[in-house]
Design goal:
Blueprint: H1 2-9, H2 15-28, H3 47-51, E1 69-78, E2 81-86, E3 97-98, H4 110-114, E4 127-128, E5 133-136, E6 141-150, E7 161-165, H5 176-186
Parallel strand pairs: 1-6
Antiparallel strand pairs: 1-2, 2-3, 2-7, 4-6, 5-6
The chain binds iron/sulfur cluster.
The site of iron/sulfur cluster has 12 residues, from helix 3.
Length: about 190
């Protein structure tokens, strides 16, 4: 498409000179911030100048926002301790602390997310908190359903997770999305 349009503008010969002339124009007259239209050899043919919006070019393409991803987060307490784990070093929120969650996927229903709950003895049923926690990352928005449970004092943390006293949570590397999840999980309702 761009090649076809360019062909209609350039002469059949001396294409290199045409390209150089355009680069010179861009460097000296048609500059991004303040094009000097009155000095421009393309003044009569320039559609932007005719519309009067020449100062708005070049325009940045709007940022693409990814599709909404969904998942579940599990806020498990043992007395005054909370079950957490550390995210893998690489990738999104690498090395940060989180409560266990399901995968975060665009096509995920509540039942599939709940099936990814951590396996702990003493949980008869998960309590689903009303509402959802939403968070917007740079390249996708996330929506998490929050489940809570209390386990007996002797309950062991599943592999890859650990208990931390609530009092030490401020010292954990918790990303904002997890602070929201924990506040939602420990809140009323
Ligand atoms: S007339 Fe068009 S091409 Fe020439 S300087 Fe102005 S905006 Fe740029």
């Amino acid at each position: 498409m761009i090649r076809q349009l360019a062909t209609t503008l350039l002469g059949a010969t001396r294409a290199g000179d045409s390209a150089q002339a355009l680069m010179d124009l861009g460097a000296s007259i048609c500059t991004p911030n303040k094009p000097a239209c009155s000095l421009c050899p393309l003044y009569d043919d320039c559609a932007a100048r005719a519309r009067g919006d020449q100062a708005t070019f070049p325009r940045k393409a709007p940022k693409k926002t990814g599709a909404l991803r969904r998942g579940a987060a599990f806020v498990v307490t043992r007395g005054d301790e909370l079950l957490v784990r550390t995210r893998p070093d690489k990738g999104l929120l690498g090395g940060m602390t989180e409560v266990p969650t399901s995968g975060w996927l665009a096509a995920q229903d509540d039942k599939t997310a709940l099936q990814q709950a951590p396996m702990l003895k003493g949980i008869a049923r998960w309590h689903r908190k009303a509402g959802v926690v939403t968070h917007v990352f740079t390249h996708f928005p996330l929506e998490l359903v929050v489940y809570t449970a209390n386990v007996p004092a002797r309950a062991r943390a599943p592999e890859g997770t650990r208990w931390v006293p609530m009092a030490t949570l401020p010292g954990e590397a918790l990303p904002n999305v997890m602070r929201k999840v924990i506040a939602h999980g420990l809140g009323e309702g």
